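[09:14] KT: can someone run the structure on this one? pasting the chain below
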Amino acid sequence: MTLRPMLTLLALVLSLGVAVPAGAADWPVFHGPDGSNKSPDTGLLKQWPEDGPKLIWQADGLGEGYASVSVAGGMVYTSGNKDDKTIVTALDLDGKVVWQAANGDAWTKDYPGTRGTPTIDGERLYHESPTGNVISMNARTGEEIWSLNILEKFEGENIRWALAESLILDGDRLICCPFGEEASIVALDKMTGRVVWTAEGTGDKAGYGTPALVEYGGLRMILTMNQRAVVGVDADSGKLLFRHSHETKYDVNVLIPIFHEGQVFVSSGYGTGSQMIRLTVEGKKVSTKQVWENKELDNHHGGVILHDGYLYGTNSRGQWMCLDWKTGEAQWAEKGIGKGSVTFADGLLYGFNERENDRTVGLIKPTPEGYEQISAFQIPEGGKGNSWAHPVVIGGRLYLRHGDFLFVYDVKAE
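[09:31] RB: done, structure tokens below
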């Protein structure tokens, strides 16, 4: 089935009030359904025209912010600041705004704007504002279903540059990380907002990242980074399993922990660098041990991709790097398109330079042999501030957010 008939079918199913599961043309949560930041798309361009792929449409009026997009059920969702409110926006696949609805007060201090990307689950949308307001909305209309402020409820304190996590789902539970005095990670009933379980406090405030749900040794775990450590809790009970120190300047821990074969990779900027941690599971207990450390790849907040045994991302000095997953040894480091964010689709890396006066997008071959840039172009001018929203490739389209603007490109092969 081609994309257009598929979307027509999705729209019909939604109109009948039936929940639509995540499909090949869906990217319903930040970094995709499995959290790997690797798109299921195939049949994409292996090289772009000199001036870049075709711009299908651009939209503005989304508000200021750094939130990425989620795509589900024939709709595109993001968030931004408008006046003094955090606003969630829903657009159709032609770029027309379907609805906009508020989720509490806006973050107007350092780097004003939203951070968290909306999470879509059938007919429901979930979003966390920078000030801790968690809301459940009707994904088709924007109507509020329930809301609560997790900093207020769990006695948390906001961090220097505000909460930035994108909410994840575990079955009927919505996972959030207020890191309050009495509750670090929390599971809420996604239908009602009722508290299902809370993990004990760790003595840390929240980090700026998004949690990951993993399973290893028969134990389901939620992993995340708070301001000074990597933390794991039992996904079924909320029991705190471990706190593994990972301190960085300004307490800026952002990366979603990357889990693979019993090991967890984390990285932070400002010279902190990367760390590989081995998990040992014995029944309901987990111990941790550092396997290796690499100070050169100090990924700030653009994300890292694991592909075929190697890690790819940028460091704080603006270099693209490749590390061996097993040893942490740097394979290469090159300036390339400069510091920014990354996603993966159809065997290639899509990089997005974060600087407001640059705006370069690059198509890069992931190989440990060296930095191999295939194509590059610049998005149009428009939008204030740095481009910190991570790119998304889904349904044959490349989504690039910059401030108040969203640019959508056709990256399907002919």
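[09:33] KT: thanks! Residues 1-23 have pLDDT under 50 and may be disordered.
[09:34] RB: yep, looked fine to me
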